Amino acid sequence: MTTSTALPVAVPTSAPQAPTATSTGAIPGARPSPRADRARQPQPSDEALRELVGFAAYLRLRLFVEVAQHVWGTPRLSDAQRLLKRSVHIAEQEEALVKLGQERWGMTPGQLMGPFDGALDSFLLRTQPENWWEGLLRSLVSHGVSRDLIRLLARGLPPAQARIVLSILADDDEDYRVGLELVRDAVSADPRLGARLSLWGRRVVGEAFSVGMDLLKKWPELGLLLIKATDDAGPGTLNLKAATAAGIAELSAAHKARMEQMGLVP
Fold first, then answer.
1. Which domains does the chain have, with CATH numbers?
2. How far is CA 12 from CA 6, 15, 17, 19, 92, in A?
């Protein structure tokens, strides 16, 4: 009878342990998923959209005050009604932008617009009107420049995001025409008023450009949108200074056209 010899079997001293998560929830050595990376780090484009929406909402809020305070004082009650409708529409646009901030980022109106609070104080201080017509023209210049600036900056966003902003301001031109017609009718009847308002319009737009460009320096994401929007020669060929010059040239051309529509000399 033969006996069998048992083969030695290696027995592990301890069972292998599954990787455990750290206190932050990450597994050592594991590669973070793209989704996790996106959750931790805000995307630059979305941050730019958020700043632009907050900026646009704040401008609309200020513009509502500018327009609403000129409803009373119009030559005709029918004109007052038209200005009233214009101010209501501006308020609706502001509310739509605020709603976007709440739904997309969970931000209150104060959180969305708060960073820009007081941004126009110096402009308003340096362009205080002396009469109703100067006040109306300031609101028209402010409306036109701010609208064109927002549309210009939106061109620097990805197309899908740009459409979000532009859709809210899509029907703005008809509202703006109300004020243009008021000024045009008045200066055609009073050439001296036209001469004074032409000088006033040049002063107001100069201050508006100055404040607008300062804001783009203060908020880098908005400045980056301007660079992207005006960089027709290809990515990376413009800096903020060159983009600002290109932006002012575009905004100036649009302002000149509006002044001429009102019968004023740009």
1. 43-261 (1.20.1260.10)
2. 18, 7, 12, 18, 72
Alpha-carbon distances, residue 162 vs 52, 54, 217 (angstroms): 10, 14, 21
Its sign, for the CA torsion 84, 85, 87, 92, is positive
Q: In this predicted model, what pLDDT tens digit does every residue of 168-200 receive, in sequence order?
A: 988 766 667 888 999 999 999 999 999 999 999
pTM score, two decimals? 0.79
Task: Enumerate the H helices of 69-190 as residue ranges.
Answer: 77-105, 109-113, 121-126, 132-154, 159-168, 172-189
Q: Write down the residue that tokens 């028209």 correspond to.
A: 140
Give the distance, in angstroms, between the CA of residue 78 and the centroid of all CA atoms in the same chain: 32
Provide the token pair at 14: 């301890």
* Distance between CA atoms of residues 197 and 151, nearest Å: 26
